[in-house]
C-alpha cells in the first residue's frame, strides 16, 4: 500500500506523465501472476527457469524456436512473438544481445508496444547503449507502460544458480515492483538511478572485467613460460594482492578450475563477440563524455581482433588461448 501511496503522490505533482504508476505497483502486489520473458539464450534460459522455480507462470518467446524447448518442458507457455507476450502478460522481462534487437522487440511490427497493456512493467536486462534504454522508456511511456533497464553481471553460472547482480535504472517508485521479480533470479538487485544508469553501471563493470581478464591471461601465460605450474600460480595469485574474479572464479587457463568455459574448450559462458560489443558501448560513451579510457580502448581492440580470428563464439576468457597462439604455441 505504501508503494501505491508514494506513486499516487508522485502523479499528483506530475500530471503530464502518461504512466499510471499506482496501477503498476498495485498489480505487483498481487499473487504470482503471469510474467512474460523474451530472449531465451545462454542467459535468458536459466533466468526464465528460475522464475518458473519460484512459482511464476511464464509466457515466453525467442526468435529461435528451439531455444524455447527447455522452458516449455518446465511449464512455460510459448507464443510466436513479443506482441503476443505483451497481450498476455503485464510484467515482461527481455534479455537480448544488442541495441538493434531491443529496438525491434519493443517497437518492431510484432513488438511489445504493439499490444502492451496500460500500466505494464517492462524490464530490459540486455546490455545496450544507455541512449537506447532512454528511447525505449519514452516510447513505453507514450503507451502508458513503465520501462526499466536492469542489465546483469555474473555470467551463465550465476544465472543458473539465481545469483546474478542486477543494476536497475528507472522510476524509483517502481523499483520495489521490479525487485520482486529480479530477486527470483539474482542475489543482488541495486537501484542505480533513472533510466540508463543501470546500463552505465554495467558498461563500466564489463570494461573492467575485460581488462582484468586480459591481465589475468597475460600473467598466467608469463608464469607458465617461466616454469610455474598454472594451478600453483593461480593459488598464489588468489591469496595475494593480484587476486580478482578472473583469477579466482573464472580462471582462463584450461585445467586450473572445473565448471568454467576454459575447462570446456571455451564453450558456453559469455561470448567474445558480446564482450567486444560491450566494450564498443564503453568506447562510445567514453568518447561522448570525453573520458580517457586507454586500457579500455586496448581491450576493445584485442577483443575485436579475436572476433576476426575465429574466437567470436568462444567465451571471452579464450583471450588466454589467443595470446598463446599469437606467440606460436
From TrEMBL:
Pfam families: NAD_binding_11, NAD_binding_2
Primary location recorded for the protein, binned into one broad class: mitochondrion
PROSITE patterns registered for this protein in UniProt: 3_HYDROXYISOBUT_DH
Example of a GO biological process term: L-valine catabolic process
Annotated compartments: Mitochondrion
Residues at the catalytic site: 202
GO molecular function: 3-hydroxyisobutyrate dehydrogenase activity; NAD binding; NADP binding
Domain 6-phosphogluconate dehydrogenase NADP-binding: from-to ranges: 34-193
Pathway: Amino-acid degradation; L-valine degradation
Leader peptide range in chain numbering: none
Coiled-coil portions: none
Designated name of the protein: 3-hydroxyisobutyrate dehydrogenase
Species whose genome carries this gene: Seriola dumerili (Greater amberjack)
Amino acid at each position: 500500500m505504501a508503494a501505491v501511496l508514494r506513486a499516487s503522490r508522485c502523479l499528483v505533482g506530475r500530471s503530464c506523465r502518461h504512466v499510471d504508476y499506482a496501477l503498476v505497483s498495485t498489480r505487483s502486489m498481487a499473487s504470482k501472476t503471469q510474467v512474460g520473458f523474451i530472449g531465451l539464450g545462454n542467459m535468458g534460459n536459466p533466468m526464465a527457469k528460475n522464475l518458473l522455480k519460484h512459482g511464476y507462470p511464464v509466457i515466453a518467446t525467442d526468435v529461435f524456436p528451439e531455444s524455447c524447448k527447455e522452458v516449455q518442458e518446465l511449464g512455460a507457455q510459448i507464443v510466436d512473438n513479443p506482441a503476443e507476450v505483451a497481450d498476455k502478460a503485464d510484467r515482461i522481462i527481455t534479455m537480448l544481445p544488442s541495441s538493434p534487437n531491443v529496438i525491434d522487440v519493443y517497437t518492431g511490427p510484432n513488438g511489445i508496444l504493439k499490444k502492451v497493456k496500460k500500466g505494464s512493467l517492462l524490464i530490459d536486462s540486455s546490455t545496450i547503449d544507455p541512449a537506447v534504454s532512454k528511447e525505449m522508456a519514452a516510447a513505453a511511456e507514450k503507451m502508458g507502460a513503465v520501462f526499466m533497464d536492469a542489465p546483469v553481471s555474473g555470467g551463465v553460472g550465476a544465472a543458473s544458480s539465481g545469483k546474478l547482480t542486477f543494476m536497475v535504472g528507472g522510476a524509483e517508485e517502481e523499483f520495489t515492483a521490479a525487485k520482486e521479480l529480479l530477486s527470483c533470479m539474482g542475489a543482488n538487485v541495486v537501484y542505480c538511478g533513472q533510466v540508463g544508469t543501470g546500463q552505465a553501471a554495467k558498461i563500466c563493470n564489463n570494461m573492467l572485467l575485460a581488462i582484468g581478464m586480459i591481465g589475468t591471461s597475460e600473467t598466467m601465460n608469463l608464469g607458465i613460460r617461466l616454469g610455474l605450474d598454472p594451478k600453483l600460480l593461480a593459488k598464489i595469485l588468489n591469496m595475494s594482492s593480484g587476486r580478482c574474479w578472473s583469477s579466482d572464479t573464472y580462471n582462463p587457463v584450461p585445467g586450473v578450475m572445473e565448471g568454467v568455459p576454459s575447462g570446456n574448450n571455451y564453450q558456453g559462458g559469455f561470448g567474445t563477440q558480446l564482450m567486444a560489443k560491450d566494450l564498443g558501448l564503453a568506447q562510445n560513451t567514453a568518447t561522448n563524455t570525453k573520458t580517457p579510457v586507454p586500457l579500455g580502448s586496448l581491450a576493445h581492440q584485442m577483443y575485436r581482433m579475436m572476433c576476426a580470428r575465429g574466437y567470436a563464439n568462444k567465451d571471452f576468457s579464450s583471450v588466454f588461448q589467443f595470446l598463446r597462439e599469437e606467440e606460436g604455441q
